Amino acid sequence: MYRNLEECVIDLEKNGHLIRIHEEVDPYLEMAAIHLKVYEAGGPALLFERVKGSPFRAVSNLFGTVERSKFIFRSTWKAAENIVALRNDPMKALKQPFQNIANGIAALKALPLRTSGSMPVAAQEIRISDLPQIQSWPMDGGAFVTLPQVYTEDPENPGIMKSNLGMYRIQLSGNEYVQDKEIGLHYQIHRGIGVHHTKAKKLGQPLKVSIFIGGPPAHTLSAVMPLPEGLSELTFAGLLAGRRFRHSYVDGYCISNDADFVITGEIYPDETKPEGPFGDHLGYYSLVHPFPLMRVHKVYARQNAIFPFTVVGRPPQEDTSFGDLIHQLTGDAITQELPGVKEVHAVDAAGVHPLLFAIGSERYTPYLQVKQPTELLTTANRILGYGQLSLAKYLFITAEQERPLDTHDEVDFLGYILERIDLRRDLHFHTNTTIDTLDYSGTGLNSGSKVVFAAYGEKKRDLCKEVPEVLKELGNFENAQWVMPGVVALQAPAFTDYANEQKVVQGLCEAIQARGALDSCPLIVLCDDSTFVSANLKNFLWVTFTRSNPSHDMYGVNSFYENKHWSCDNVIIDARIKPHHAPPLIPDPTVEKKIDRLFAKGGSLAGIL
After folding, report:
1. What 3-state DSSP class applies to 375?
2. Cβ contacts of 538 within 8 Å, gap of 6 or more
3. CB–CB of 487/393 below 8 Å?
4. How many CB atoms lie within 10 A of CB 2?
């Protein structure tokens, strides 16, 4: 049980989970580049002791592996798991009353505690510019806080038990922000802070915001937890920390006493400034858009404060471990919330939100000989209407029949669906709807489409295990590469515009159809580099599902409409980069060379890679 971040750092170092970097490191690109190399190598947490331009130390890669995260929470993990399970399934309390007395006592002990005495975080008042000004990617708009705990209260019902604690990135510098007086707050749709902001706006008053940085690691994890209704983030923070969340109020702002830093300020109705760009978790930059402006009130720091940060980019990254931890802690939460759902997997390699694999149930018509998706379609609508799962673009869903399935075995799961799907019946589109704010494959910010691939029944086809002859020598569509059973990538000329490309791809569909049936290859991917796409599964998932918008970029061989339902014999997904897409994240090679000194003999990180 850690009272603060410093105690965690000391414990990790003592047990071989953390290395100190003694050399001075530049927060402009260098710190992020070092983090990325160490994370990729499965290395330890990193304590940067000398951050150029700041009096404060910084730590990263705390949650870089699930094993290290579980080590951090080793004494409280089981209690937290039990409480979440109890909230998901209240009947467990009746089935195991004595065990659940202990759970109830643990929850009571975790309730937030308001104090009037010591506030370690208020040891000193500083400026925004005193914080480590970490910029991770070359085209980022400035320095960002990447592990903030953003706290707001309900303007109509204030108090800590009705508060929201979320992780929304904070831009500290750049663009039009007045240094030390203004910062940018980027939050996406389906976020709790949006409810509070809307209420404050209706009341015509500013929304008070407190940004906690650091503190016990449990506080950071709590800010990203999708908790059951009625279990507050701050109660969960106390539960996972093994110590109640201690807070005070100063000038009307909530202060986390155990945080390393706290930024307080207000968001005024309709006051925005351009925020971004920012290298994000889909592997591309999120671009400049107007987002709420926060007027800074005060910035506090504890003595010897440590600034935690992470780097987001194309998965897997440290936030992948967050996802694994959340899955392990919440367990069956989704199956409890969504009847008929057995498993949902937001595919990390595809950037999480764009692609879902799901296992449902098929119980509507057991008496019929012909098996087809029925209950699965109801389940698909439930999934696409549930919280952040509603941001998905592609949902592949089936039900188990003759053998168990695992959505995390991506090749087997996708292959199972492709063997059984009836492409004239089992594709279901949702157009002109919402997608992830960070996904630029759609028609505008937050706007795009979705498609459901729902398959159930007997196996219909054997999937190709090499490139079929039909897909070879197709003019400008060249270098056909086998990706996995039933999937082939075709390299195409650079995308120009939809008016032209729709005709070009339609010509490809007709050329394939003219060569005869191609039942063994239900999915064809058009791309800029088929060698790259076929090199490994992660490349295929990333390119295909982050660079396409179903309504605009799905085509079909022998496609037609019947009573408004779209059908085809083979699906073609155009996953080429389009002019409206955001640029991918590319490291600066000069920075890569500069950080080699830390990994060379005599450097703090020698022998890590």
Report:
1. helix
2. 315, 349
3. no
4. 22
Is residue 230 within 8 Å of 171, Cβ to Cβ? Answer: no
Whether the CB-CB separation of 476 and 576 falls below 8 Å is answered with: no
Q: How far, in Å, CA of 152 to CA of 164, rounded?
A: 5
Cα–Cα distance measured from residue 439 to residue 437, given in angstroms and rounded to the nearest whole number: 6
- What are the CA-CA distances from residue 510 to residues 427, 474, 550 (Å)? 20, 11, 20
Whole-number Å distance between alpha carbons of 410 and 488: 16
* Close Cβ partners of 450 (under 8 Å, ≥ 6 residues apart): 384, 392, 393, 394, 395, 429, 430, 433, 435, 550
Name which of 85-89, 401-405, 417-421, 565-569 the model is least confident about: 85-89
Q: What is the 3-state secondary structure (H, E, C) of 58-74?
A: EEECCCCCHHHHHHHCC
> Does residue 10 register a pLDDT over 90?
yes
Rounded-to-integer distance, Cα 54 and Cα 173, Å: 14
Q: pLDDT (tens digit, 9 = 90+) per residue, 436-490?
A: 888 999 988 889 999 999 999 999 999 999 999 999 999 999 999 999 999 999 9
Alpha-carbon gap, residue 385 to 394, rounded angstroms: 13
Backbone angles phi, psi at 520, to 5 degrees: -80, -10
Residues 609/41, Cβ–Cβ less than 8 Å: yes
Tens of pLDDT, residue by residue over 504-556, are 999 999 999 999 989 999 999 999 999 999 999 999 999 999 999 999 999 99
Which helix (H) or strand (E) segment holds residue 48: the answer is strand 45-51
CA dist 26 and 31 (Å) reads 6
Integer Cα distance of 85 and 99 in angstroms: 12
Would you say 136 and 144 are in contact if contact means Cβ atoms under 8 Å apart? yes
Largest CA distance in the chain: 80
Share of the chain above pLDDT 70, in %: 94
- What's the confidence (pLDDT) of residue 229? 59
Using alpha carbons, select from 418, 386, 440, 416 the residue that is nearest to residue 578. Answer: 440
Give me 19's structure tokens.
Answer: 């290395």
- 8 Å CB contact between 539 and 533: yes
Cα–Cα distance, 137 to 28 (Å, whole number): 8
Contact criterion met (CB below 8 Å) for 279 and 140: yes
Residues in the chain: 609
47/344 Cα distance (integer angstroms) = 36
User: CA-to-CA distance for 556 and 570, rounded, in angstroms?
Assistant: 5
| Sign of the alpha-carbon torsion through 346, 349, 354, 360 | negative
Pick the more confident residue, 44 or 270.
44
pLDDT for res 339:
86
- Strand 18-25's sheet: what is its strand order? 18-25, 45-51, 57-60, 306-309
Q: Which residues pair with 428 in a beta bridge?
A: 452
Residue type at 51 in one-letter notation: V
pTM metric for this prediction: 0.91
Amino acid at 460: K
> Which residues fall within 8 angstroms of residue 36, CB to CB, at 6 or more apart?
311, 313, 317, 587
Q: What is the DSSP letter of 576?
A: S
The residues pairing with 560 across neighbouring beta strands, listed in sequence order, are 567
DSSP 583: P
DSSP-based three-state secondary structure for 406: coil
